[in-house]
Amino acid sequence: MVFLWAFIVGGIICVIGQLIMDIFKKTPGFTLSLLVVLGAILDGFGLYEPLVDFAGAGATVPITSFGNALVHGALLEAEKSGMIGVITGMFEVTSSGISAAIIFGMIGALLFKPKG
């Protein structure tokens, strides 16, 4: 049942993104930014963590979880370190994912030749 809910919730998030691009004729960059902001807003109101608990990877894999991670890290570190924690908390939580994307992108660029 966990896999089914992860599939459904992740699919709904992706459908929302696709509808934004198709119906409102927004660019992929706009849609990406909007979904990150929506994830941040949901975490700010304390609604994203229950979604993660319910849907698992269906809520942590889509781009909305990046916004969730930014706000979640900032709020946790702000409680510990004050205002400077707002900035350091965002970097602390998201740095491993961003670093992995850069490293794997570099490896891919070295191993494969682009077409075109």
UniProtKB/TrEMBL annotation:
<feature type="transmembrane region" description="Helical">
    <location>
        <begin position="83"/>
        <end position="112"/>
    </location>
</feature>
<dbReference type="Pfam" id="PF03862">
    <property type="entry name" value="SpoVAC_SpoVAEB"/>
</dbReference>
<dbReference type="InterPro" id="IPR005562">
    <property type="entry name" value="SpoVA"/>
</dbReference>
<keyword id="KW-0472">Membrane</keyword>
<feature type="transmembrane region" description="Helical">
    <location>
        <begin position="6"/>
        <end position="24"/>
    </location>
</feature>
<protein>
    <submittedName>
        <fullName>Stage V sporulation protein AE</fullName>
    </submittedName>
</protein>
<dbReference type="InterPro" id="IPR014204">
    <property type="entry name" value="Spore_V_AE"/>
</dbReference>
<keyword id="KW-1133">Transmembrane helix</keyword>
<keyword id="KW-0812">Transmembrane</keyword>
<feature type="transmembrane region" description="Helical">
    <location>
        <begin position="54"/>
        <end position="76"/>
    </location>
</feature>
